[in-house]
Specification:
Helix content: 25-40%
Number of domains: 1
CATH class: Alpha Beta
Distance between the termini: 34 Å
Strand content: 15-25%
Shape: globular
Strand order of the largest sheet: 2-1-9-8-7
CATH topology: Beta-lactamase
Order of helices and strands: EEHEEHHHHHEEEEEH
Largest sheet: 5 strands, antiparallel
Length: 254
């Protein structure tokens, strides 16, 4: 396995949680929009994805990536989850967090507690979208644990494997949301067997990518953090290929 250029990198066996390769996997780094994996997990675990969320003024007060809704607009949690994970809309993250916990602060506390319950003990979350905050950080290992838990949710798996989604505005117009994860659909980065997951970028975090791939009924999860624009795709493809080639024999249960 060539050493990834990314500051932090890891590939994990999704079945067992075993680390198959790592570089600086316990270094605390900014996750950027891969934060939304945990946001989506908490919303899905809450259930009732057909519950209607009424957009409030504070939900719209976030930048830069936004779906652009207005106070009074109504969407189901399921619709918002597609916009969260494909469009990576920060206003959607804010609306889902407020709907779930009553406030951004309360939701951030839930995020940190849920991460810790998964074994992600070197992480702390301050918001649901991943915009820079000195108290908002995780590690490649922790991020893989969070992604592994999320991928055990059928609704999450369906959403992050979706290439495009027809978003209907309150005015009845249709907007096609395209998944930012090029490993799913975009040559030359498309990776055969890719099942998700989530991209991220801020100036401080640089490129972040959590990805997953499935072959012969076995799946791996890759994380790269603080990568350059092209490097996150290069490193992720290499990690996924390495992980799939080095999976241990499936454990047998008697």
């Amino acid at each position: 396995m060539p050493t990834p250029a990314s500051t932090g990198a890891l590939v994990m066996d999704a079945l067992t949680g075993e680390t198959l390769y790592e570089k600086n996997s316990y270094e605390q780094l900014y996750p950027a929009s891969t934060t939304k994996i945990l946001t989506a997990l908490l919303v899905i675990e809450e259930g009732d994805l057909d519950h209607v969320v009424v957009i409030e003024p504070q939900d719209t007060q976030v930048e830069p990536s936004a779906i652009g809704f207005k106070p009074g607009d109504r969407f189901t949690r399921r619709e918002l989850l597609y916009a969260l994970m494909l469009k990576s809309a920060n206003d959607v993250a804010q609306a889902l967090a407020r709907d779930n916990a009553g406030s951004i602060e309360a939701f951030a506390e839930k995020m940190t507690r849920r991460a810790a319950s998964l074994g992600a003990l070197q992480s702390h979350f301050a918001n649901p979208h991943g915009l820079p905050n000195p108290n908002h950080y995780t590690t490649p290992y922790d991020l893989a644990l969070i992604a592994r838990a999320a991928m055990q949710q059928p609704a999450f798996r369906q959403i992050v494997a979706t290439v495009s989604y027809a978003w209907t505005t309150p005015q009845g117009a249709t907007v096609l949301l395209k998944n930012h994860n090029k490993l799913l659909w975009c040559p030359p980065w498309k990776f055969e067997g890719c099942t998700g997951l989530k991209t991220g970028y801020t100036a401080k975090a640089q490129g972040v990518l959590v990805s997953s791939a499935l072959r012969n009924h076995r799946e791996v999860i890759s994380v790269v953090m603080h990568a350059d624009k092209e490097g996150k795709w290069v490193d992720s493809k290499a990690l996924l290929a390495y992980g799939l080639a080095h999976l241990p024999e499936c454990p047998r249960f008697y």
